[in-house]
Amino acid sequence: MAKICDIIRAGLVAFVLFHGIAASCAQVNLPNAIPSVTVSPAILPQTATSDPAAVSALEKVIEASGGRQAWGAIHSAKVRLTVTSAGDKESHDVVMLDDWSSDIVRYRRGTVGASRKPKDHDGQTTLSVLRAGKIGQLHEFDQAHVLAGNLPAAAASIILRRPSYIAKEANGAKCAPPAFCVDIYFRSTDQGPFVRQEEWTLSDTSNLPLRIDLFLPNLMGSTPIIEEFQFDSMMRQAGLVIPNRIEMRPPGGGTQIRDVLRFEPNVAFDKDSFDQELSR
């Protein structure tokens, strides 16, 4: 099995960078940028507002995923999943812990059996990344951005209730019926512009997400780095509908298949307990 750190350094798995799974590696390299596949503007002014149709589409995602009341009662979650990368004969287990009970961004990621302790994402404002031999600083990812590829209904609930987000109807060849596309914009300060962070492709029959593209910053230029999460199947647990199998396509090529093993809602953000689970 190819070691996950080798995959990261080969530029195949950008997702492990921003989801923190690369914590066991000595360094993390951002892959080369690829062109955007959408026609939406990258930045909107601070006066921009959400489109009613886009808001309605996200509300339908939540309803189809268990309902607003059910997701409103969920403030954190831990997910354990098996990850199989293209070309690997074996898989590895990854644990994801998220807490969206406040405006503070809190998440923790780790690979079971990794030797190094996971990175801390508990209210930090910046991330350190290595690109072309140089260390750069990125603004910490917002909570909806972190959740979208894992628990999209939780991300949608955050987007709809926080003023730092707006949702806009998106246009493009892949957005024609039976699909409907929504762009998610985020601003990190009250006075700043809204920057496009995500594009959601939704089924207009099930109202569930079919695919979510995440736009990552590019230290080497203005073109964003894009990674794609395709939701191959869903499952119902604790009255909630969540992705069961996710196909992740990072920039640079390759594919990861992520199969959910366990979903635990409303767990404590206990770093010690989380780290102990990684050693089991």
Report on the architecture of this protein:
The chain is an alpha+beta fold. The protein has a single domain, classed as outer membrane lipoprotein receptor (LolB), chain A. The protein contains 7 helices and 14 strands. It has helices spanning 4-9, 15-18, 52-64, 68-72, 143-147, 152-161, 271-278, and strands at 43-44, 76-85, 92-99, 106-111, 121-122, 126-131, 134-139, 165-169, 179-186, 194-203, 209-216, 225-237, 240-249, 256-265. Strands 1, 2, 3, 4, 5, 8, 9, 10, 11, 12, 13 and 14 form a 12-stranded antiparallel beta sheet that branches. It has a two-stranded antiparallel sheet with strand order 6-7. A hairpin with a 6-residue loop joins strand 2 (76-85) and strand 3. Helix 3 (52-64) crosses helix 6 (152-161). It starts with a helix and ends with a helix. The model is unreliable at 1-37 (pLDDT under 50).
Q: What are the defining features of this structure?
A:
280 residues; outer membrane lipoprotein receptor (LolB), chain A; alpha+beta; 37% strand; 7 helices
Blueprint (SSEs and pairs):
Elements lengths: L3 H6 L5 H4 L24 E2 L7 H13 L3 H5 L3 E10 L6 E8 L6 E6 L9 E2 L3 E6 L2 E6 L3 H5 L4 H10 L3 E5 L9 E8 L7 E10 L5 E8 L8 E13 L2 E10 L6 E10 L5 H8 L2
Antiparallel strand pairs: 1-10, 2-3, 2-14, 3-4, 4-5, 6-7, 8-9, 9-10, 10-11, 11-12, 12-13, 13-14
